[in-house]
Each structure stands twice: as C-alpha cells, then as structure tokens.
Amino acid sequence: AHPTTKVSGTLTNDRVEHACVYLNQRGVGTDVKLEPGRSYIIMPSTFEPDVDLDLVLEVYADEDIVMERLEEPVTVSTKGAWSVANDTAGGCMNHPATHWSKNPQWFFTAPPCGGPLSVSLTQEVAPGGTLHHAGLKVYKVSSDQRLIADPQDESALLLNTPITNAPTIGDVVDTQPGASYIVHPFSFEPGKEASFVLTLAGREAPAGGAPVPASEVRALVAAGKWVGLTAGGSPNNRGTWRNSPQFLLEVSAPGSVTLTLSTLVPNT
C-alpha cells in the first residue's frame, strides 16, 4: 500500500532497504538501487537525539520520480497491564499451564479508509527498572468476535512480532476498510508484571477510537480432567466416548461465544 504517514513501530533490519554511515560533516550522500512500482520512505536523522538543525533533502534520478513530505499520523492510545493479582499475566503460548488467553486482548475496527496502520506496545518502566521480553500479535476477526479462540490460526494472524525486551515493539499491518481486529500483547514468561501503552497510528483514527479491552467480555472458566473411566476418547469410540467430561452452557440472549480448551502436560 502507498504510505501516507510516517513510518513507526519497530525498525527491524528486514524493513531497511539501505542505511548510510553517520558522518560528522555538513552533508552526506549515497547511491541506492530501487525497484519500480514500489514505495519507499526516506528518513534522515542525526546520530544523537535533540539536535536542532534545518535540512535539505535532494534526490537525483535518470527516470521520473515523485517525492512528498509524509503527514504526521493520527494516533490513539490506551493503557493496559499484565497483572498477577488480576490474573492477566499468562505469558506466551509456551506456557499453557498459565493459560495464555488470560493476557489482555484489545478489539478495534479499522478506519473507513483502511490501509497501513501502525500497532505498537510501549512498556512503562521506572528508571532502572527491568524491561520484560514481550511480543505482540494482531488477528483479523469477525465484527462480533472479542476473544481469540485459536492463537495458531495462520489465516487470521496478520502480525507476530519478534519477542524482545525493547522499550517499544510493533509493526505496520495493512487493514481493510471497516474490518475488525484483535491485538494480543504478551510477555514471554508468565507472572511478569508491567504496565504498557498500546498505540495505533495511521492516516485516520480507528472507527470508534481507541481499542476496547477484551476484559469487558464475560468469561467463565471450568476445570476438568480425563482420567480412568472419564478418558472416553472421541465419538469414534462408540462404547466409551460418552464417559468424557461434559459441561452445560446456557446464554441469556443470542450472541457469539468463544471457547478455548487448554491441556496441561504433566512433568516427566
């Protein structure tokens, strides 16, 4: 998609087409081979922050080129946290015993224009504090879905950032106009507590504003086990399948229900 706002998110090596060497002189230049039909973003910078300077950017080519200054993105943010007391510090999917689905999840609707949208998470850490290794997933969902049922559904997964202890993690997703998405931030290890800021940035604000926390969804948890006679197997086992645990579920009004099932593997 043709970018209309500044790049944001985590600047990983796979997103960088070319980088110049920083030099202590009035001007720098470089030659870059680019592919036709693609859009590129040029980001001049000083090595250190807080350096006030005027700049002139010039581009020379033997073919017709177009260059324009990108707009500041429209940004919305909301705060969240991984908390042991609130049972929202489940860790990543490597830790099924702590139930990854207890991590905060956030629902948002893409703006009417759709297009690139930056999704990022910034940990709020006091000076001298520890940044946890964390990751961020974004899923495309139906408009009435508020929780992720299958975290490994590759058809729904749009973004899966590397797990890192950087202050800010994230990337850009290409959204469809008015489509619905869920953001799933997680720490790598369970039981890690931290406050964070979830930020969306693009040409337009998401419909409805900031993401809605999935904690607003009513949730029930039931425990059980397959053991002895209750390990009846699937309906393919006609004589025993009815012995498996069964649970009664009732709803007070029509609506969508998300079911998740996790198994605990005993230590060996």
TrEMBL record:
Which Gene3D superfamilies has this protein been placed in?
A: 2.60.120.380
Q: Where is the Peptidase C2 calpain domain?
A: 72-210
Q: Which domain of life is it from?
A: Eukaryota
What's an example Gene Ontology biological process for this entry? proteolysis
As recorded in UniProt, coiled-coil segments are none
Hey, what's the signal peptide range on this chain?
A: none
Keywords for the protein's UniProt record, in alphabetical order = Hydrolase, Protease, Thiol protease
What GO terms are given for molecular function? calcium-dependent cysteine-type endopeptidase activity
Is Nucleotide-binding tagged as a keyword?
no
Show the PANTHER family listed in the entry.
Answer: CALPAIN, CALPAIN-5
Question: Family assignment?
Answer: Belongs to the peptidase C2 family.
Instruction: Spell out the protein name for this chain.
Output: Peptidase C2 calpain domain-containing protein
Which species? Sexangularia sp. CB-2014
